[in-house]
Amino acid sequence: MDAGARGTLAAPSRLSVIVPARNAAGYLPRTLPALRASLPAGSELVVCDDGSSDASAEIATALGARVVSTPRREGAAAARNRGAALAGGAILVFVDADVRVHADTLPTLLAAFEDGQVAAAFGSYDADPPRVSTVSLYKNLAHHFVHQRSRPEASTFWSGCGAIRADVFRAVGGFDAAIFGIEDVELGYRLREGGHGVRLVHAAQVTHLKEWTLGSWLRSDILERAAPWARLVRAGRGLPRDLNFSPADHAATLLTVAACAGTSAAVFDPRWMLAALLAVPAIVLDYPMLAFFARRVSVAFAIRAAALHLLHRLAGVTGFALGLLRPAPRAALL
Predict the structure, then answer these.
(1) How far is residue 295's CA from residue 127's CA, in Å, rounded to a whole number?
(2) One domain for residues 194 and 323
(3) Buried/exposed code over 153-170 (b: 16+ C-beta within 10 A; e: otherwise)
(4) Which among 2, 15, 104, 166 is least buried, having the fewest CB atoms inside 10 angstroms?
(5) How many structural domains comprise the chain?
(6) What is the pLDDT of residues 263-285, one digit of tens each?
(7) How far apart are the C-alpha atoms of 199 and 196, rounded to whole Å?
(8) CA pair distance 203, 222, nearest whole angstrom
């Protein structure tokens, strides 16, 4: 089946689920069956193949999805927009290719739209990710913890598992394909600026199957999260007041940076080594998350995660500084 045939969708349906996929052949057999099984009657499942070099498009077709293919990589935001342009549902649901929904994920998420003031809703990763590595386990559990403690009335959006009224999505212009990494956050900003309600549905949870390495995680935190977020701030958008931007988070980040700077200065004056102790109150401020890690996995994991979380804060500051100093890339993907 050629790309043009794959891009022809059926008659309008109530719900359209859109999955951007880039070299996702290893994930789709584990994620699409659960997604298809949870779709209400009359819904459509659209996989937007973003110039994959593997068999993502063929696998998605074999698993019952309608596939929209592009010959070259355009980015997840552009892939989602392409699927949304062809979708016929009144509600658009965006789900990442490496995310497996639970049987109750979509019904729980869609229940938020019973409130007519809600234009968009999103969930979170669950607390039971595959334990493939310490970094992956930390990354996924940290996401779960942060989202679960955040307010239901959200100021951002999350496209890992998020839904939006189709007419609102089109009215605000969809995802900004020039923003790589936090295009869903930027969409959430525009939704709230337009007076549209965004709901964080704590009970709508999914399992994240992605396997992170230390390098891929740090690259993502620096170049695909913190740097583009800084560009949004530079453009006049402020930081949200929920998620991981609480006063305690700001204080812990400042303490971590001071500890790192002081330790570096010890090369010239050993007395600065005492500044490393500033990492202790930073860890204390993160106690609720670390206690969650200890309960969910083990004390040993919580100790390792504490070190990773300090590194996460340093990566965030590094990326934020890059985003403030460097011009935003427009022509190439990060």
Answers:
(1) 11
(2) no
(3) ebbbbbbbbbbbbbebbe
(4) 2
(5) 2
(6) 777 667 777 677 778 888 889 99
(7) 10
(8) 29
Q: Which amino acid appears at position 99 of this protein?
A: V
Last residue of a domain, one of 193, 211, 229: 211
Rounding to the nearest 10 degrees, give the CA dihedral for residues 88, 92, 98, 104.
-110
Q: Over the stretch 12-64, which tens digit does the pLDDT of each residue have?
A: 348 999 999 999 999 999 999 999 999 988 899 999 999 999 999 999 999 99
Reduced to 3 states, what is the DSSP secondary structure of residue 108? Answer: helix
The boundaries of the domain holding residue 148 are: 3-211
Write down the pLDDT at residue 204. 98
- Greatest Cα-to-Cα distance within the chain, rounded to the nearest angstrom: 72
DSSP secondary structure string, 222-268? IIIIIHHHHHHHHTTPPPPSSTT-SHHHHHHHHHHHHHHHHHHHTTT
Looking at the chain, the whole-number percentage of residues with pLDDT higher than 70 is 90
By the 8 A CB rule, do 212 and 136 touch? yes
Provide CB contacts within 8 A for 231, sequence distance 6+.
Answer: 179, 323, 324, 328
Residue-wise pLDDT for 69-106, tens only, equals 988 899 999 999 999 999 999 999 999 999 999 999 99
